[in-house]
Specification:
Blueprint (H helix, E strand, L loop, with lengths): L1 E7 L5 E7 L11 H20 L4 E6 L4 E6 L6 H21 L4 E7 L4
Length: 113
């Protein structure tokens, strides 16, 4: 199962996420749930890096099947907010279509430093 935690700041704006696991929907190379989630995440991260001036911090731990992404600049720009909101919208659609057996999404408040 893919578990995704989306972090929101005190203003309830998305400021990052953590993703771990594999969907297990189908065999490696044929898993459309993993492919959909990967496409959404990669496109969002690349778009934020290219089209905004925010400073993302990404971390990939392949042995733990873990990817984390956090915007380190404050405040988060409106463009980045929109891209992250779009990611959440897409992830919710995948979760609705394929169910909680393969993908779980939760929203969590992240304390500002």
């Amino acid at each position: 199962m893919i578990r995704i935690t989306v972090y929101q700041n005190d203003s309830e704006k998305c400021c990052g996420f953590r993703m771990e696991g594999h969907a297990g929907y189908a065999a490696y190379g044929n898993d459309i749930v993993c492919a959909a989630v990967s496409a959404l995440v990669i496109n969002t991260v690349n778009s934020i890096e290219v089209f905004t001036e925010d400073f993302p911090l990404c971390s990939l731990h392949q042995e733990k099947d873990l990817f984390s992404f956090e915007i380190t600049s404050y405040p988060v720009s409106r463009d980045t907010e929109l891209l992250l909101d779009s990611l959440v919208f897409g992830l919710k659609a995948v979760a609705k279509e394929y169910g909680k057996k393969f993908i779980r999404l939760k929203i969590k408040r992240k304390q500002e430093v």
